[in-house]
């Protein structure tokens, strides 16, 4: 690294380039706190979201740490039953609504959607900023519920416990989730309108990067599922505050209706978490395999199919709640059907790797980890979709392990894959690759060590949501808690080296990975206007090699210079 | 670029590099499209309430009929008339606003729309007072013997209150347009905000068209 370059951390620069009088980057457009908090620049709002979801992630992670610490031994020795209930509720509520659901769409999505389609900003920049404030307001309300004594209902807020019996701060926490729902609806409206109205000339629907398709389908779920949760939660508040007995069985109300409405949102919410992750993985795998994505149109239709069919599978959460055998059969069948497009995606990623010149840079390690963890999570989902097995493992750690494989293993791996992949574009800096590779591998092993034993403990019958358990389950819990410690280190490492890279990292080139997307055809970091001219799209996406041609005879890849083909 | 268009054109539409006319047309199309998506979201919001109502009414048809007979048909019908009239005026304002020249008509229509909305809320307030006076609030002292009748009134209070909040937001939006348009002659003509706000108003209207028969008419035929 040559010394003596006068570098402001936010100026535009590529060390190989001369000063060309290019426009200043979005990071240099203002250095005051006010310039961030009132910015309507989608890139700055993405950074705001990234900071807030990181805070929520570590808050939810702290609660999970306490839970795993308590479960190290069969007896209650760290916390009591009541505190334990409040801890896992806090963990679930914060992680689901304030980390996982906003994670990829509002950070990477916000930053990249206009760049990927060649737009200057989102369609409604002020709405975009407002959505962040709504998210923060919701988060503060829910966090204040924790200060007001916590919530002990579990993240599902099942009635009549949450309405009639619980003496904890349910209303406050539920209102926080309600407010954050409007934040995601605003994001959804913005993404859909932006994709429809602001695509650059030549960026046809079937030239959109799969990440944009993933954001688009996610936003459909945002817009159509979130309001149902909003009403349901508002009814919980109405019943607690004004004694409106919608779900009160004593007066003819139906608690099962709550479950139907809750899962009508909360099952699609899983697809809110996984669809953007699939989009990220499609970008990363194509780039580091130097291949066009296998079956682009099928990948698009698979995203749409998951989004649509995902709306009709909610009943598989309720097989044991009281449901006719016919309804159970239908929901079971639909749950199997939704696995088909998911499997198409896994097979297509694998086929994309075939004859690729695969590089194992850190984003690719995270992405390959995603494929493995998603496959395990998806296949165990099929176990749970079949009624007899579901009845056997209902409310056990098998379920916990299954949804953590999808929501944490897959989604969070993809979030980190995307974070590392686009970090040079976002910050204009390179991170230390060795550390990043180490963290990626550690995360994969830590995750499996934490959650694979839970499949076994759950299958053997260990119920979830208890702070004590029979001693024969201890071995699985010790393994799991040890894995959680490894996982915690793996999550803390990026916080360290990515922060370091912002201050001391090497300058990033405009396109350090030699990737094909439009977002790389501008400076790193991009200027406020995103592009220097008016972008126009002339080719298909993932243009890594001539169509129909075999790959060039293997050339050695020089990772420091990106990928050669 | 004329002063009015400069006023109306917002980011990111001003950066498209298009002539003002077509940039403004795309901005209007984008804004209208956005509010339609939001309305789709709202349909699911009220759809969930109507689903709850449907399931509970199928489970307890007699109690729901008995409870619905306790609502005040006069106030409900009067409110329906007020809101439908306001919806007509909103549609007139939206259509007349395409192109300059009808500013006074648009202003009058907007003011009347907001005024009728306020009248709706006033009637609703009187009706609420009467309902509370007759203890038609779920809980101890509820006049009807069947417990599920309280379910009907739970839905009644919840749905009308949520609708009232939506209407209050609508009144705020329309009144804002009327005030800004009255102060600045260049504000209203061709402004996308007019159509966006009035589409929202139309949606709140339609919700009431569904709520009225569900809440006021059961048990009253024959």
Automatic annotation (TrEMBL), chain A:
Q: What is its EC number?
A: 7.1.1.9
Compartments it resides in: Cell membrane; Membrane
The record's region (Disordered) falls at 542-565
A single GO BP annotation from the record?
Answer: oxidative phosphorylation
Primary residence: membrane
Q: Which residues form a coiled coil?
A: none
What PROSITE patterns does the annotation carry?
COX1 (PS50855), COX1_CUB (PS00077)
Q: What does this protein do?
A: Cytochrome c oxidase is the component of the respiratory chain that catalyzes the reduction of oxygen to water. Subunits 1-3 form the functional core of the enzyme complex. CO I is the catalytic subunit of the enzyme. Electrons originating in cytochrome c are transferred via the copper A center of subunit 2 and heme A of subunit 1 to the bimetallic center formed by heme A3 and copper B.
Q: What is this protein called?
A: Cytochrome c oxidase subunit 1
Organism classification? Bacteria, Pseudomonadati, Pseudomonadota, Alphaproteobacteria, Hyphomicrobiales
UniProtKB/TrEMBL annotation, chain B:
What's one GO BP annotation on this UniProt entry? aerobic electron transport chain
Q: Zinc-finger: present as a keyword of the record?
A: no
Chief site of localization: membrane
What are the record's GO terms for cellular component?
plasma membrane
Could you list the residue ranges that cross the membrane? 33-53, 73-93, 105-123, 154-177, 198-217
Q: How does it sit in the membrane?
A: Multi-pass membrane protein
* Annotated Gene3D superfamilies: Cytochrome c oxidase, subunit III, four-helix bundle
UniProt domain Heme-copper oxidase subunit III family profile: residue ranges: 30-220
GO MF terms listed in the record are: cytochrome-c oxidase activity
Pfam families xrefs: COX3
Q: Which InterPro entries match?
A: Cyt_c/ubiquinol_Oxase_su3, Cyt_c_oxidase-like_su3, Cyt_c_oxidase_su3-like_sf, Cyt_c_oxidase_su3_a-hlx
Q: Where in the cell is it found?
A: Cell membrane; Membrane
The alphabetized UniProt keywords are: Membrane, Transmembrane, Transmembrane helix
Can you tell me which family this protein belongs to?
Answer: Belongs to the cytochrome c oxidase subunit 3 family.
What protein am I looking at?
Cytochrome c oxidase subunit III
Per the UniProt record, the source organism is Methylobacterium oxalidis
